[in-house]
Write a structure and sequence with these properties.
The structure is a homotrimer of 453-residue chains.
Chain A (H helix, E strand, L loop, with lengths): L3 H7 L4 H7 L23 H27 L1 H12 L5 H27 L4 E2 L4 E2 L17 H22 L6 H23 L4 H6 L7 H19 L6 E2 L2 E2 L7 H20 L8 H32 L6 H16 L7 H24 L8 H14 L1 H4 L5 H29 L6 H6 L1 H6 L9
Antiparallel strand pairs in A: 1-2, 3-4
Helix pairs in contact in A: 3-6, 3-10, 4-5, 4-6, 4-10, 5-6, 5-7, 6-7, 6-9, 7-9, 7-16, 9-14, 9-16, 10-11, 10-12, 11-12, 11-13, 12-13, 12-14, 13-14
Chain lengths: 453, 453, 453
């Protein structure tokens, strides 16, 4: 990890040189796109300044617009999850999503951002010095408005929290869930992010490559969700007498809306992760990322639909189609730039297949994942990360494996500790009677749909 | 009020100078961001022109993208309100929101815009010369495409109209409501806006400060809603025998969606109200506004949730959480730039608390506000406006108070006159039988959910 | 059709000159906005390069942001259609919309884009040489990132497919529909688009003018929908005993949401079709398009509402208000720039009236259009196209008529052939029992709202 002063000084080095150097990109040596005016260098310092300001504005704008689009994914997760829970838990699930986005914002300001981008790190880059309460500090040399970066990173951490929310729905109490969310967004996710985007161990020692976060965001959320599902246990009545009892979602059109909103948001998630858009090369990259991201989602949807049609006598499970889209999107997130469009379709399609295959597998293991977030975010996150070396020569299978395992081990252990503490101290589940009555009545005090049926 | 020619000439003065001068900003002497190229001034007139064009494009783009994001808030209000009314009025409420956005657009073109930004004013700046039918007129010297400004202002007036719609839901007939909307968007809101953003009395004589419209937009809508609720009266059966009869919303997930859409739209509402984004200072300001806006919403949600949990034996009212977000957002709207992030959390949190406290107070006063718009938009609008001097030294408590009172007095009286005229002439309420049957059947002729329950 | 090399060379010619020359715009000689720096031409080649890069970035950004906004229209169509079908078909309709967007993306990559923008054409420009599998190829001289253009065009083809989906809802099987979608998006739409935007016959020989696709996109979808509705036949029970049996939509608030999302998306659809935003003239044009697009929608809503109130004893059909918005938007799409705002209101209002008049006409003809897509997209598409010469002197009624007829004849015949082949081979309809049970049960295997009513 370089001292801050050196990093700032280096941050004005042109994009390509910096890119060729390492993946020390996000949050540390972000690609400062030299604006068109660079060609006017002969005009001297004033033109150079103008060029820097222009790039600064462009980069900040990209973070703000990209971040805004990703922010809307919170609405997407909310709709997907509200649509896939039963009627008696839909108000709780809706409120929980509003609440978790609020908790994530607060904690990432209080602790998370400074954990993820620490001034210096210990333990060979596996742990940074925690600092508290982030505040903006703007300098032309960083290449972007500091609050635009904070905003862009904050919406990523909220995504990780939303993933957990879906898996453990319908049987976790509100406050324990929000406390877990606070720890996840203040410490667990930021530590993982620091390994790579904060210039830590994965980046420095292993050449790990995860463009927009298949592992760092989606698998992190997925591991936390998996461990939560195991420790909390399945919904009452889900696995009884060796049988799996289907508990169908209450509002499929809302789940479709959620899927489309996530798809929409993913263009910001992957596209703005190029981190610069002001040069010929950067804008071409962003455009390619848009196209590849879309192709992977298309592949995921159609592969999931065709496979379910084959498996289920011609019937196509709509929720599999939706999760196929998400699985395809997660799969391309680790490397949305390098693959061709055809390879993107393939990567996404295998993601869609993994979703269809993993959902019943979880049922067999009696792990109750209400919305299918573990297949879509964890399994596809691993898949997407491991396939990066196929298209990106800078990544190695070994480096990718280290990143996947490190994330899995750390997030699982940390999540297990937190969930266990919550279970032992305040309890994470409602009583069986309360669960049967529904969380809306017992935790929210109103019903999602008081007049429907 | 300066003559038009002087204003145009002044509009090319650099941002900072202009900002230090007065708050004669929006619509009159809009900050013309001198683009990076300004540093090339030595190159002479052609570089100056290029710089002007670049700033012109950037500013217009900000209005169009910002306006588009704010336009989507119309969908947010529609979902929030459709979710919080009863099933029998949900189609009416949905249609009313589509209709009011249409009326607002038409009236702001026919009258409103020219009322808000009159060429000159009378009565010490309290009233401008009304002109009819706005049409675009583009000049490089204004610093932005005229239609981009019209669009951005138009979506603000639609917001004010949406606020009224929510409060008076379930018992006002369609056409009287739309006529009120027409008057509100053609005259009432534009006159209030002219006092500040049109360079009128509040701006010129009192140094009133309201960055994106806590008072000018949200309180204006809130006062009109309050007066409407009083004159129209409560829903049949709401307050009977000294009791408050809860009439729970029919679709809480839709209300959550509406909340998220409004939160999303608020980044355009506050962020684009910086009115320029092409310089180091301006883009830093926009980024800071994004961060502060988000923090205030987070504070509003969590404060409202914690307070309801304390008040209601551990249960958290989902609609309070949603209105807490909106209350926090309204509270920060008067000054989203100057506060620190911590202060933004606090301002938003107090907004959330005000919502929770005011909702039962309205019930005690037998004022029936179906969606809680009066607490969120009026009460928090006043709060947000009055707290501005704490972070922004240019504002005074006296000046803020004058703005709050002037808006309250004028909007209340004007709204009362219009609602009374409508009541006496065409009648504003359906018959009791019609109200009992629901507005969907009597006014729309179809049901929102014909097959649900 | 000019050879590729010539087109590339010409593409660096300034916007105005190019515009005055012909409508050879979209995809061939796209207006390359000379950026502000052009004024610095005296600085020589480096400034010229900087100017080119700046315009390249601006144009690509416009396609990506515009395309993203249009992409979200897929969610709008999904909500509109899911809200207007009956409960038993709402999951199917939701899934079908996710699936068709996926098929459209795949086919437009495999075939469609190269069909629409062929290197050279035969048959006097009526047919291009088909090429397979599009891949990006970026050159500064084209003026935009190739993948940004692909993405922008792809979301347009998805729009055409969504139109068909709504009309033939509730009685067409999943796979035949998706096969039709594949042919529509790979061949039918691209061939039509090639006539105009690919520099084919309509553009070269007839001076046809269709700014953003009233005919090329909306009527194409509308003709395919009309022919599909005729060949597939009405829903069981719709027209029995000479009576029209209403089959009301199951979720009107979702339909309102869909309407607002489409309205939102239309600013990208029309605004970004200016294809450049980096100059004084271009950004003024985009702003004017935003304002006009909005006014047309306002006109459409209010005209439809007033007319239904007159026709139906004071009741206002909410679905007519929604389709009035869409009809107004389609009507202005052929020429959203040239009309004044007042004329835009009028064009949209007549579109709204056409919707109200055409819906019962289709019923009389026993053509079953579930969501009213034929009135809104086909009828208003023709209207909007034919009225172009009123405001745009470059267009002639004859040229417009040729475009309308050519599109109608070709799309109808091609669609009829495909629908007939599907009917004869695999069958397009479920059995009567399956249709009665609902497509959710028979094709999807789950219910949209298992707990509602």
């Amino acid at each position: 990890m370089l001292p801050v002063q050196v990093r700032l000084a280096m941050s004005v080095i042109p994009t390509n040189w910096e890119k060729g150097m390492s993946s020390l990109v996000r949050g540390t040596m972000r690609g400062l796109a030299l604006a068109p005016l660079a060609a006017l260098g002969a005009l001297g310092a004033s033109a150079q300044d103008a060029s820097q300001v222009s790039a600064y504005v462009d980069n900040s704008y990209l973070f703000l617009i990209g971040g805004l689009i990703v922010m809307f994914m919170a609405a997407g997760f909310c709709m997907l999850e509200a649509g896939l829970v039963r009627k008696k838990n839909a108000a709780m699930q809706s409120m929980k999503n509003v609440a978790l986005f609020s908790v994530a914002g607060l904690m990432f300001w209080l602790v998370g951002y400074n954990m993820a981008y620490p001034g210096s790190t210990f333990l060979s880059g596996w742990f940074g010095i925690p600092a508290f309460i982030w505040s903006p500090s703007d300098s032309l040399d960083t290449g972007y408005a500091s609050a635009s970066d904070w905003f862009f990173q904050m919406v990523f951490v909220a995504t990780a929290a939303s993933i957990v929310s879906g898996t453990v729905a319908e049987r976790v109490k509100l406050w324990p869930f929000l406390i877990f969310t606070a720890v996840l967004t203040a410490f667990i996710y930021p530590i993982v992010a620091s390994w790579e985007w904060g210039g830590g161990a994965l980046d420095t020692h292993f050449g790990f490559s995860d463009f927009a976060g298949s592992t760092l965001v989606h698998s992190t959320g997925g591991w936390a969700a998996l461990v939560g599902a195991i420790i909390i246990g399945p919904r009452a009545g889900k696995f009884v007498g060796g049988q799996v009892h289907p508990m169908p979602g209450s509002n499929i059109p809302l789940a479709a809306l959620g899927t489309f909103i996530l798809w929409f948001g993913w263009f910001g998630f992957n596209g703005a992760s190029q981190l610069a858009a002001g040069t010929f090369d950067d804008i071409n990259a962003v455009a390619q990322i848009f196209a590849n991201t879309n192709m992977a989602a298309c592949g995921g949807v159609l592969a999931a639909m065709i496979l379910t049609a084959v498996l289920y006598k011609g019937k196509v499970d709509a929720t599999m189609a939706f999760n196929g889209a998400i699985g395809g999107l997660v799969s391309i997130t680790a490397e949305p730039l390098a693959p061709s469009m055809g390879l993107s379709v393939l990567i996404g399609a295998i993601g869609g297949i993994l979703v269809v295959v993993t959902v019943p597998l979880l049922d067999k293991l009696k792990i109750d994942d209400v919305v299918g977030a573990i297949p879509a975010h964890l399994v596809c996150g691993i898949w997407g990360t491991m396939i990066v070396p196929l298209s990106n020569g800078d990544a190695s299978f070994f480096g990718q494996l280290v990143g996947v395992i490190a994330t899995g081990v750390f997030v699982s252990i940390a999540s297990a500790i937190i969930w266990m503490i919550l279970k032992v101290t305040m309890g994470v589940r409602p009583s069986d009677e309360e669960e049967l009555a529904g969380m809306d009545k017992t935790e929210v005090g109103l019903e999602a749909y008081p007049e429907f049926g």
